[in-house]
Specification:
This protein is of the alpha/beta class. It has 2 domains: about 300 residues, ABC transporter involved in vitamin B12 uptake, BtuC; about 190 residues, Rossmann fold (3-Layer(aba) Sandwich), CATH 3.40.50.300. It is built from 23 helices and 14 strands. The strands form 4 sheets. It has a 6-stranded mixed β-sheet, sandwiched between helices. A 4-stranded antiparallel β-sheet has the order 6-5-8-9, covered by helices on one side. Strands 1-4 form a two-stranded antiparallel ribbon. The structure holds adenosine-5'-diphosphate (ADP) and magnesium ion.
Length: about 600
């Protein structure tokens, strides 16, 4: 979240905090608003987990239960004071989410939501069947939270504490999203596999956001237990989990403040429905679930992004992210000596079932060279890139980079050794700015973690990352688009943005998959100049491109693939005259 939305968010939260002071606030509303605050904490976590990270959880209420039961047991059976149990409740929830996360976040597709339903149900019965937790009757007689000796029994008093925590959660969540780890989390949506090519440990990023969301739920549970003064299993079951998810979706699954908006809308709606439905028809109270279903479907139909983004548009433009060019430069790896062997591909093959996409291909790239990899569509060029970057394992063969074998390494480790790439099918995060997308490329060059980001101890490193990203964007000529959402770029510009992201990795070898596709003549010229300049600076490039003028004028050496096999190799001039190459292009499927 950048400055403007955060200001608005704080202003609205401040208003909400003042509201109960107003003489027209009946106690009933005060307690409803308190409930909204409690739900907001959970919904904010879900916004990060589901809306931003793309992991749907129906089981979040169980983690509220962990926080609530931990403090309930410790305060009633062991005489702990509520404040003493706060760190313990968070630790319990943190450990539980870590354990559950380790086994579930790796589930893909529909299996993760199904997994969350499974634990949502199991913990409900666990809470209900453990004698020490009071069975389905639960635990009562929980003491209120005291501040400076004053017990917060009055709804108004507790209200302030709840919203103080909500405020803290909003700020910390915004901090997390606006950081190196935050960009990794935001890249998870839609799989996020591409991020591994820049060194992002996506499994770790998933776990971080999973535990973070769990901790917010646990915090909500801790507060809930002391507000309600009793706990029982029902508020921590699957139904509650679904309500929380609806809040996150309705409010705005991509923005932290959407969690608060969603919690407000759902709580007020729920309350009013309980009020009005029975008056409209007998037994109508049970219809609330149906009304919610309709609201949810309507929200998904008409406002995919939720209510908050729509409200947000009424406010001022978000301020662009600050760039401090005086920030220290990121560390650089010494480039290999010009002419030194850099990449050695030896007899590499890749099979997809019966199809041999890459068949016993060998070639090499020397430092400071631009090597073209050409061939008709389906020749195996992109697959070769995937093998070189660890996106897919080779079926056989050896790949040596800077003297070390890399064919069995995962994408992340190969990125760390200095191979960066672009993708034929552009893989930018559409909702993030060009600057933020490019900054993902620098993931391995400065490593502030989640915790330091949450507490803003990462700002010096972050400034260095952002300055580097901005420099690379200027280098490729996209300065004017720096602060635009990547999704708004024309295809050609998006490809160039991918080059900037790859350069951010400080690579020794750059793999470009059809970088000139979709560029206009002048832009192609600009790109060719850039690549020539990079070569002068010692960069090595492996280039897949269909524009023959582009390839012929730029490359030092060309490798030609056809149906997965290498059919020719040599300097551009020789390739242009090679009968085998002409045959492949003219007689091919194109
Ligand atoms: P190019 O980039 O040269 O156009 P590709 O490397 O994308 O070609 O594809 C080479 C062949 O491998 C094609 O026949 C393509 O259909 C096939 N192929 C590529 N990726 C996969 C995959 N993941 N599963 C099955 N077949 C694939
Ligand atoms: Mg391709």
């Amino acid at each position: 979240m950048s400055a403007a939305p955060r200001l608005i968010a704080l202003a609205v939260v401040a208003l909400a905090a003042i509201a109960p002071l107003l003489p027209f606030s009946p106690p009933y509303w005060v307690s409803l608003w308190g409930d909204i605050g409690l739900a907001s904490l959970v919904a904010i976590g879900l916004v990060l987990l589901t809306g931003v990270g793309g992991m749907t959880s129906f089981g979040q209420a169980a983690f509220v239960g962990f926080g609530a039961y931990t403090t309930a047991v410790l305060t009633t059976a062991f005489g702990f004071s509520p404040w003493a149990t706060l760190p313990i409740a968070l630790a319990t929830t943190g450990l539980a989410t870590l354990a559950i996360g380790l086994v579930t976040v790796r589930l893909s597709g529909h299996f993760l939501p199904l997994g969350t339903i499974a634990w949502g149900i199991s913990f409900f019965y666990l809470f209900g069947n453990l004698a020490v937790l009071g069975g389905f009757d639960g635990i009562s007689g929980i003491p209120p939270i005291s501040i400076a000796g004053f017990p917060l029994i009055d709804a108004r008093a507790v209200y302030y504490l709840i919203w103080l925590f909500v405020l803290i959660a909003i700020v910390l969540s915004g901090n997390l999203l606006d950081s190196r780890m935050g960009r990794a989390i935001r890249a998870l949506r839609g799989g996020g596999a591409f991020a591994e090519s820049f060194g992002v440990d996506t499994a770790q990023a998933k776990l971080v956001v999973f535990v973070y969301a769990g901790l917010l739920a646990g915090l909500s549970g801790w507060l809930y237990a002391h507000v309600q003064r009793s706990v029982s299993p029902s508020p921590f079951g699957l139904t509650a989990g679904i309500d929380y998810l609806i809040m996150a979706v309705i409010g705005g699954s991509g923005a932290v403040f959407g969690g608060v908006v969603g919690a407000g809308v759902v709580a007020v709606l729920n309350d009013q429905l309980q009020n009005w439905l029975p008056k409209l028809m007998e037994g109508g109270g049970n219809l609330a679930a149906i009304v919610f279903g309709v609201v949810l479907v309507a929200a998904l139909q008409f406002a995919r992004g939720g209510l908050w983004p729509a409200l947000r548009r009424l406010g001022p433009e978000a301020a662009p992210k600050r760039i401090d060019f005086s920030a220290a430069p990121l560390p650089k790896t010494p480039a290999p000596n010009r002419g030194a062997p850099l990449l050695e591909v030896a007899g590499v093959s890749k099979r997809f079932g019966g199809l041999v996409a890459v068949n016993d291909v060998s070639f090499s790239v020397k430092a400071g060279e631009i090597v073209g990899l050409i061939g008709p569509n389906g020749a195996g060029k992109s697959t070769t890139f995937n093998l070189l970057t660890g996106v897919a394992p080779a079926t056989s063969g050896a790949i040596t980079f800077r003297g070390a074998r890399i064919e069995t390494l995962p994408a992340r480790k190969i990125a760390a050794r200095g191979i960066a790439r672009t993708f034929q099918h552009v893989k930018l995060v559409p909702g993030m700015t060009v600057l933020e997308n490019v900054a993902i490329g620098a993931h391995l060059r400065a490593r502030p973690g989640a915790l330091s980001s949450i507490f803003r101890l990462d700002r010096a490193r972050e400034a260095e990352i952002i300055a580097e990203a901005a420099r690379q964007i200027e280098r490729v000529g996209l300065k004017a688009h720096m602060h635009k959402a990547a999704g708004s770029l024309a295809l050609g510009q998006a490809r160039v943005a991918e080059i900037a992201r790859a350069l951010c990795l400080d690579p020794a070898l750059l793999l470009l998959d059809e970088p000139a596709a979709g560029l206009r003549y002048a832009e192609k010229k600009q790109l060719a100049d850039l690549l020539a300049r990079l070569r002068e600076e010692g960069m090595s490039v492996l280039l897949v491109e269909h524009d023959m003028d582009f390839v012929m004028t730029l490359t030092d050496h060309i490798v030609v693939l056809d149906f997965g096999s290498k059919i020719a190799e040599g300097p551009p001039k020789a390739i242009a005259e090679s009968p085998a190459v002409l045959e492949a292009y003219l007689g091919g499927v194109e």
